[in-house]
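Recap from last week: sequence in, structure out.
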Amino acid sequence: MNIIVTGSSGYIGSCLISKLEKKYNILGIDKIKPKFKQKNFIKCDLKNFKKTKEIFKKFKPDIIFHLAGQSTIDGIKEKEKYITNNYTVTKNIVKIIKSLDIKHLLFSSTAAVYKQSNFLMSEKTTVKPNNIYGKTKLLCEKYIKNNIKNSRKYIIFRFFNVCSALVNPSCGELHNPETHLIPIVIMKYLNQMKIKIYGNNYRTKDGTCIRDYIHIKDIILAFEKGIDFLQKKKKSKIINLGTGKGYSVMEIIRETKKIVFPKNLNFEFHKKRKGDIDKLVCKNDLGKKILSWKPINSSLKKIITDEILWQMYLKKKKIYRKSIY
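Predicted structure tokens:
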């Protein structure tokens, strides 16, 4: 099977390829070179419709994993970047899929498309994004639904908080600066730096906000299950990818301390950030039912342990990065 992965140099794309390239014939495409070696890679800005179509035509993919896009939440001044890197690129990919009669698409969307709520979020939860990232992803979803029809099928995966790393082969998050909670907590904890916690008066059991964290290995498993579903069932679906269980910021810090004991715990509370809600947790019944998928790798202990091993690997390779807080 031939698979094209767009955004192959990113965190999720790199991990997918490193785990699946022995099983499938995979071509990675990205506008930046991958930080770690990929067997088949072409550097291409997906906004370049003509070049992108030529690559697709030559490779003859059976399925597209469309992961490319702008994801770091920036200010409103970055709006144009999100529109071109997310919506315009997705339109290009869909047009190419239709013109070359490619049958299957797996698209990475986000929980950020949902209306903010403290209740479990199912695929039927009202969509009402409150940031430009979520808004452009929702535009992409609508374009896919309106244009991938008839013999062509898609799965739209709405990711919750994807995290942690692969141990063998070693692959994980390598943003610089790092923007996500778990790698920042572990990076600062291992280096005995002060951890900043934004808000301690949320309506949760310990006052810190709760999020649904899913291990990258379970994301990869869902993509494999998604391939099988599209081939056998020939249906299009929107599916949440999360664990159905949330962890608070303090639970993450306590679990990290437990694993890397006896280092001291060094943190301080700051004012909560605008827009952050108490709880954001997924209802994942649909993925379990139709894909026969379960998030079997997403215990907090495994998430943190694998992230620690990844950061130790980076340290050994003398790869360092900053964090946004």
